[in-house]
Amino acid sequence: MPAFSPTKIIIISGLSGSGKTIALQSLEDIGYYCIDNLPLALLPEFATHLSQSTSHNHLAAVSIDSRNLDFDRAIEDHLDGIKTQRIEHELLFIDANQDELLRRYSETRRRHPLTNEQTTLVEGIEQESKLLEPIKARATRIIDTTGLTPHELREKIRLIAGEQHQGAQLLFESFGFKHGVPREADFVFDVRCLPNPHWDKDIKHLSGLDQGVIDFLQAKPEVSEMVDDIASFIAKWLERFQADNRSYLTIAIGCTGGRHRSVYTSTQLRNFFKKQGIKVQIQHRDLVS
Hey, where are the domains in the chain? Predict the structure, then answer.
């Protein structure tokens, strides 16, 4: 009997306009068999068919959204239907705040699926958000696309899809508090108390990736102490998160503008955990040239 690759299903749901189509297309690009707007009631049957298929590709992704007329019925039963089959699956919920959704619909001039002559765009977004609450509550991962470009969302989806469940992967994200805290962060560390290269006229134009700023911060004992303390905290609790089936953690490091201290600290932490053999990624959200 031939050996088949393990079955894995990624279920994508979320608000209209939040980026579900981009997420599904990203999975299709890396070899997932994708179905847009699969009726929720067919999900267990589809999972069974996929697991019994003789195809070498047992990777699939389906999107489920408010266009399903029976979306709010028996959600728990349908999702539990694939859980009882012991099929590896993940439920991603793609989210965005109302102002961002209004901006996107204004730019594209597309019609929201829940709007009509009696229902305004704002009302449609609010209705859909309420309708999707049960499935959002069951999500294994929520991705807020409010501040993400389509390219950044594709990278996040590819990262998630490529994960092997052999330990948690860490994403270190530098940011500036004046631009807002990343909503998707699992931990947020504030490094604004550290010496600020911004006040040194010779290096203020540089970033935490440049040698001048690196030398400045490495010469300050409290900077190394901060990096060591954050690394020790993450290392101490990482195993507990892995035991809780958390395969992905976002650690946000913030300074005032997201250019110097947070970039340097995030890079140092990335380097530390990479040397430990842990899968790491880094993203500098507010670093601009």
Answer: 8-161, 169-284
Contact 143, 156 (CB under 8 A): yes
Given a cut of 50, whether residue 3 has pLDDT beyond it is no
Whole-angstrom distance between the N-terminal and C-terminal Cα of the chain?
A: 57
Question: Regarding the domain delimited by 8-161, which CATH topology (the fold level of the hierarchy) does it fall under?
Answer: Rossmann fold (3.40.50)
Neighbours of 47 (CB within 10 A): 22
The Cα–Cα gap between 14 and 118 comes to 23
Task: Using pLDDT thresholds of 50, 70 and 90, give the confidence band for residue 2.
Answer: very low
Instruction: Return the DSSP state at 80.
Output: H
Nearest to 62 by CA among 22, 27, 12, 16: 12
Residue 61 tokens read as 């992704």
* Mean pLDDT (the chain, rounded): 85
Q: Which two tokens stand for residue 209?
A: 């990736």
Sign of CA dihedral 13, 18, 21, 26: negative
CA distance 236 to 240: 8
pTM beyond 0.85: the answer is: no
Residue 4 pLDDT > 70, yes or no? no
